[in-house]
Design brief:
Largest sheet: none
Number of strands: 0
Radius of gyration: 31 Å
Strand content: under 5%
Distance between the termini: 83 Å
Oligomer: single chain
Structural class: mainly alpha
Number of helices: 13
Shape: flat
Length: 319
């Protein structure tokens, strides 16, 4: 008589692999309260910054826009766009716009090119630290101090003319700050002498963050020094380049202290930029309505230029 043995499997425990997993879901009401609490907490941390920005930036800008629509006479206080029409009728403001464009081009191109060249040449070398110190040192000075130094050099009996006279180049000696556009050009060079330091620092940080393996791979593939710089170094310096150009763009549009100490916008009003014209109209000519209009136009130009540049650079294919 054969006995049949039945293979019985023990029941699968509730927590075993065969049992369906139960996911603990937070009730909708509790989840909503948690989300609201997180938003309130985040808003509490952001509130001081938003309050300071509103108090010190947005509120003065709104008041400046409001003031720009009022004239400075008691007979007709509300003047609509009369203050803005000065840009088409006042020759001094037309020259101011030209000088501002010159400052933007010079203060963007010179620090970028010089800073990149100096950073690449001093990135590795025996005397690189000393060279970088000499270049970066002017950046530690204020704009007024830089203006005093260059005023000593550029006056009619200054250091530059004395050196030219000592070398027998009397024909090249001139009043560097007396004729336009030469006076604007030399002030742009003075600004570049100071602003190149921060560009060197930023580009050195970018160069030292480049993996050396990429340069070694390029050298193994037969790339020359220029090809490595163009196709390997420059693309990896793009984030730093965006910062350098953006800073230079804004600084060029709002340049004031160096111009004011060197020429005070003169001779006449030949070297004024929009920032200097805003100060001159508001505090010297006692025309706050016109000064407010210039301030609004300058602010719009700075914001538009920065937005267009950053929108083009910081796209989805970029950084």
């Amino acid at each position: 008589m054969s006995t049949s043995v039945t293979d019985r499997r023990p029941p699968t425990p509730a927590g075993g692999p065969g049992a369906p997993r139960r996911t603990m879901r937070r009730p909708p009401l509790t989840q909503g309260w948690a989300t609201a609490r997180e938003r309130v907490t985040a808003g509490g941390f952001m509130a001081p910054a938003v309050l300071l920005v509103t108090l010190f930036l947005l509120a003065p800008f709104v008041w400046t826009v409001y003031r720009s629509f009022f004239s400075d006479t008691r007979t007709s206080p509300f003047s609509w766009f009369d203050n803005y029409s000065l840009f088409a009728s006042d020759p001094a403001l037309s020259r101011s716009i030209q000088n501002t464009l010159m400052w933007v081009l010079g203060t963007v191109a010179l620090p970028f090119v010089l800073g990149l060249a100096i950073a690449c040449t001093t990135n590795a070398g025996r005397f690189s630290r000393l060279a970088r110190l000499c270049v970066v040192l002017p950046y530690a000075l204020s704009g007024s101090a830089v203006a005093v130094v260059w005023n000593f050099m550029l006056t009619t009996d200054g250091a530059v003319n004395q050196v030219l006279t000592g070398l027998g180049l009397d024909s090249l000696a001139q009043g560097w700050l007396l004729t336009w556009p030469g006076n604007t050009v030399v002030m742009i060079l003075a600004n570049a002498w100071q602003a190149t330091g921060v560009a060197v620092i930023l580009f050195l940080v970018g160069l030292q963050s480049i993996p050396p393996e990429t340069l070694e791979a390029g050298a193994l593939d037969g790339a020359s020094g220029w090809q490595q710089f163009r196709h390997i170094v420059l693309p990896q310096l793009r984030p730093v380049s965006i910062i350098v150009i953006g800073m230079s763009l804004v600084n060029g549009l709002k340049s004031f202290d160096l111009i004011w100490v060197l020429t005070q916008g003169g001779p006449g009003r030949a070297t004024e930029t929009l920032a200097v014209s805003m100060y001159n109209e508001t505090f010297l000519e006692l025309r706050p309505g016109a000064g407010a209009a210039i301030a609004v136009v300058l602010t719009v130009i700075v914001l538009a230029a920065s937005w267009l540049y950053l929108r083009r650079q910081l796209d989805v294919k970029g950084v």
